[in-house]
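Margin note from the TA: students keep mixing up input and output lines. Inputs are the sequences; the output is the structure of the whole complex. Example:
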Amino acid sequence: MHDISSVSALRASVLPELSSGSVVWVHVSGLGVDASSHDAIGSTLCRCGLGAERGVRLPSTVILDWTRTDVLAAEALAYFTVVARRMMAIGIQTIICMPSTKTGYVAIEGIVRDLVNAGARAVQPATQFSDTASLLASAASFQLDDSGQQSDFIEVCGEGIAKSGAEPSVREIAEALLREALQNARTHSEATMAAGAGLSFRRRRPRLVQVGIADDGIGVARSVLARGAHTDLREFADATIALAVVNGTLSGRNAGHGGGGFSLVLREALESFSARVTIRTGSALLRMEGADPTRWRIRHLTRGFGTQIRFEFPVLASAISKV
Amino acid sequence: MTIERASANEYFLEATPLRVADHIHSRDAFVDSEAAGLEVALFESLEMLPPGGLLPIDFAQARVSSEAARRFLRRGIFRLTGGELPDRFIVFQNAKDSRYNLKVMLKTEGLVAVVRTGDATTELIGAVDPAVQQTYDYLKTRTEGTAKQVATDLGLANISTATNRLSNLAASGLVRRMGPRPAIGGGREYFYAAVA
């Protein structure tokens, strides 16, 4: 039995199993799409059965360690929720080292309580300190066939954005984006669950609101390849296929529309609100910002499980370029 | 369905609004299947409209994704604009929360619709052509207008251009075409009133 009285005690008690590979220690700071270790964490999660090919020998225990995470990201909180639930669903004992930052702690407290009730274990941090982010919406998970749960999340995010001082139109377009993204997840991703979270960064200039969602689905590229008409694209990388989809090239609609509902609302958010968006789907990482709403920056990762999307909106009116 | 004489424009008979919230299970309709009941309710309401009938679609307490909007509105709008249910009209109200989703759906389908905004006016959303926008904006400020008035007041080259613009608006279900009636100075003329 592992000692969960403190993080150091836990580390000491799992040392032999760490070397044998039956326990995997994951520093979740890499769950954010900006993190330098984001690519590496994709491979680590593969070892834990998320996104892996068949035949991988799964560890008996995974430790999801928040203690070294001092920069929070909304999509990381959402992805953590999906990852932890999925690990438990495939029978891996999950131990969560709670965040040392107050906002991080509060953000995942509710989810961790649910996970503990389902058999996970939690390690409390030795100390807690303040951070620069404040919470718009705690991490929440929802079944994708339950519209009510998703509605509640959109509502909470919207209220949080309104309280942050953002213009009402920012709330409207953020909610519209969430609706389109969740609709895509439900229609195309084959995901069983999704999660979301929202943060506000009051000390950044410009002040930002950040909303992140994640799902445990097959990702954009595999969803496209599953359609008979596009199987000849299988030689292309995830990022190339995802780029074609968000640009509307594969949407199946007439040329000139610029994509489906998500792409079109996204374009409006980028052009009119100086928003920024980052999408990590499978091993594709795509970014675009309002300063240049015509060019996606793409990065090819090694591995990737599910999909994460982060929207960021500047709050101050002076930071909004074209309203 | 109750038909009331509309206060916005005397040429329309305004029906009791179709409340979107009454036909979806949660506050949001995300996917196609969640809007199926709404589409049926819309068809029933449209079929009961008399000529000149205006059906407000009320989005209060409800929000829709573009996919759900496509499911419940697309065929209804085609029935109105394709001639199956001529001289019937729809207008969206309390659609602030779904504005972007409705806009992209209409844009993708090449459709335009009238939305009542919070300040007691209306605007067009969707695939709005500048000429359509200009002509609609002109007509919505008055009870009615004719091709001759449109040509004169908008500075168009001739009456044919104004007639084409008004015909496009009427075909898109954005204005009601009435007449012909005797024109001042002889002849006959059609006159048009904007959906509002």
